[in-house]
Design goal:
Layout: H1 10-13, H2 20-30, H3 43-63, H4 72-83, H5 111-130, H6 146-157, H7 163-175, H8 180-195, H9 201-204, E1 210-215, E2 218-226, E3 232-237, H10 239-251, H11 277-298, H12 301-309, H13 312-326, H14 331-338, H15 343-347, H16 354-369
Antiparallel strand pairs: 1-2, 2-3
Helix pairs in contact: 2-3, 3-5, 8-10, 8-11, 8-13, 11-12, 13-14
């Protein structure tokens, strides 16, 4: 069995539900293992699902119902509950779930966040039906507006950091006074920028995910990546990323490449690997805030807003968009590089047609101004 630490049980972190049977079956769902003895869900996925199950169990305790008692009307009520939770359940502090002041919400959920909250419940109920724990699946009847989802998806594809701003960010990282924190931030930024990884990938993978290989006499490095769905991809990475990995490890007093696998990201002291998404998320948001100050001074406030809004997923989008630019729109190869199942997904990141349209709008303005 995998030696990765189990997610703390819901019973340990939630005391408002008296349904021990529901708690037990939910933990059984989260801690399932496959035929090889590994967890079906990755650690980050289990933590993400656990957050949604805590919210549901609190809702059930308010309704004084167990899982078997929930109806379609309850599922509708739950959507309203997470869309507008009671004030007493909202906190602006991110605390461990076993902390006495822990609250299940940081803010009301909207749009895509609601859909993401319902998805784990649908998955749990499918499991509960297959195990014979219950028969009715009230979540299966919840639908979303396809056009709205497509529109939101299209807008997300536009959440990229333009190449000139990425260059500014790299310049900031290169010339800032280095510290343990900045060394880690520089490594994180490089990793997300040059691999198009997701937030949790740096927790899921270790140093042995990088491998030196060759093809037709050319040597190069690859990042052996396993996606959320367990699909394996071998992604070529530039030499500069390996250089950044070595520099980061050297800053911690560690060998450039260990003989046995080690974490890709360590605590600031270098004693332990980082195991929580929130640590990396907060670190990157802090970095983006610092970069936004630098960009505001060098380029202007309108450019600084990009980094104020940005997240690691913006770098993933940028990775795909820039790959399309430098490959002259080679959709097939960039689709492989981006780990997309369908080339149409990759095509949505192609903004090359916007450039000529921007030229036209500038000419329109010139013709009207008489210049």
């Amino acid at each position: 069995m995998s030696e990765r630490k189990l997610v703390p049980s819901i019973q340990h972190s939630l005391t408002t539900s008296d349904s021990s049977e529901d708690l037990s079956i939910t933990n059984a769902f989260l801690e399932r293992i496959d035929v090889e003895g590994d967890f079906v869900f990755s650690q980050p996925t289990r933590e993400s699902y656990l957050k949604e199950f805590r919210r549901l169990l609190i809702f059930c305790s308010i309704k004084n119902k167990g899982f078997r008692d929930l109806t379609y009307q309850d599922s509708q009520d739950y959507v309203r509950f997470i869309k507008s939770p009671p004030e007493a359940l909202i906190s602006n502090k991110k605390l461990p779930a076993n902390h006495p002041d822990w609250k299940p919400f940081y803010s009301p959920l909207t749009g895509a966040s609601i859909r993401q909250a319902i998805a784990p419940l649908k998955s749990l109920w499918t499991f509960l039906q297959r195990t014979g724990y219950l028969a009715l699946n009230p979540w299966a009847l919840i639908t979303t507006k396809t056009n709205k989802v497509r529109s939101e998806s299209a807008l997300r594809k536009l959440r990229v950091v333009p190449a000139d701003l990425i260059k500014a960010a790299l310049k900031y990282l290169e010339h800032s006074t280095h510290s343990k924190k900045l060394n880690r931030q520089k490594w994180l930024f490089s990793m997300y920028l040059y691999t198009g990884s997701r937030l949790s990938d740096l927790i899921m993978h270790q140093t042995d995910s990088f491998q030196l290989t060759s093809s037709k006499g050319q040597s190069f490095w690859v990042f052996n990546h396993r996606s959320k769905g367990g699909v394996f991809h071998s992604i070529p990475v530039p030499k500069v990323l390996i250089k950044e990995l070595k520099a980061y490890r050297n800053s911690l007093g560690k060998s450039e490449f260990p003989e046995t696998p080690e974490p890709l990201v360590f605590s600031l002291s270098g004693s332990n690997g980082v195991s929580h998404r929130s640590t990396i998320h907060n670190e990157m948001k802090d970095l983006f805030e610092s970069i936004s100050v630098y960009v505001k001074e060098t380029k202007g406030s309108e450019y600084a807003l990009v980094f104020k809004k940005a997240s690691t997923h913006w770098l993933k989008h940028s990775y795909v968009s820039i790959a399309l630019d430098v490959s002259d729109g080679d959709i097939r190869r960039v689709t492989d590089l981006a780990r997309h199942a369908d080339w149409k997904t990759t095509k949505a990141y192609d903004h090359s047609e916007l450039g000529p349209l921007a030229d036209i709008t500038e000419k329109i303005a010139e013709s009207l101004s008489g210049n």
